[in-house]
Amino acid sequence: MLLAKTLALLGATVLARAASNLDALARDVSRVESIREIKDVQRSFAQLAQFGRWNSMASLFSSNGTLMWGNATAHGPAAVETWLRTDAGKMDGIQPGSLDTIVMENPLVNMAADGQTAKTRWNGLRFQGDGVGGTRIQGGIYENEYVRTEEGWRISLLRYYAMYEGPYFPGFRNVGGRSIPVITYHFTPEDSGIPIPPAVGEASRTNVSVEGLERRIARMNDEDDVRNLMHAHGYYVDRRMWTDVVDLHTTNTTVRVTNGANYTGLAGVRRALERMGPEGLTKGINNDHLIFDMIVDVHPDGKTAIARGSEVAMIGNANNRTASWEFNVFRNHFVKEDGLWKVQTIETTPLIVADYYKGWGTGGLKPANTYIPPFLDATGLRAKAIKQVGIGKVTRSDLEDLQRRLQRAAAYDGAENQSHAYGYFLDDIDCARMGALFAKRGHKASPFAGFFITPERVAQACFASYGTNRSALRSGISFHWRPQPVVLVSEDGRSATLRARLLQPSTAVNKSGSFNSAIYHDQMVLEDGKWRLWSVTIDEFYWQSSSWEGGWSDVKPRNESAPDPEPASWTKKYPPDLSIAAVGDRESTFRGGSGRYIEWPEIQRMWWQYRNPVSGRVPEYYWPGCVPCKAIPDWALEANGYQEPTTGPSMGNGTAVNR
Ligand SMILES: *[C@@H]1O[C@H](CO)[C@@H](O)[C@H](O)[C@H]1NC(C)=O
Ligand SMILES: *[C@@H]1O[C@H](CO)[C@@H](O)[C@H](O)[C@H]1NC(C)=O
Ligand SMILES: *[C@@H]1O[C@H](CO)[C@@H](O)[C@H](O)[C@H]1NC(C)=O
Ligand SMILES: *[C@@H]1O[C@H](CO)[C@@H](O)[C@H](O)[C@H]1NC(C)=O
Ligand SMILES: *[C@@H]1O[C@H](CO)[C@@H](O)[C@H](O)[C@H]1NC(C)=O
Ligand SMILES: *[C@@H]1O[C@H](CO)[C@@H](O)[C@H](O)[C@H]1NC(C)=O
Ligand SMILES: *[C@@H]1O[C@H](CO)[C@@H](O)[C@H](O)[C@H]1NC(C)=O
Ligand SMILES: *[C@@H]1O[C@H](CO)[C@@H](O)[C@H](O)[C@H]1NC(C)=O
Ligand SMILES: *[C@@H]1O[C@H](CO)[C@@H](O)[C@H](O)[C@H]1NC(C)=O
Ligand SMILES: *[C@@H]1O[C@H](CO)[C@@H](O)[C@H](O)[C@H]1NC(C)=O
Ligand SMILES: *[C@@H]1O[C@H](CO)[C@@H](O)[C@H](O)[C@H]1NC(C)=O
Question: In the CATH scheme, what architecture does the domain 24-201 have?
Answer without folding.
Answer: Roll (3.10)
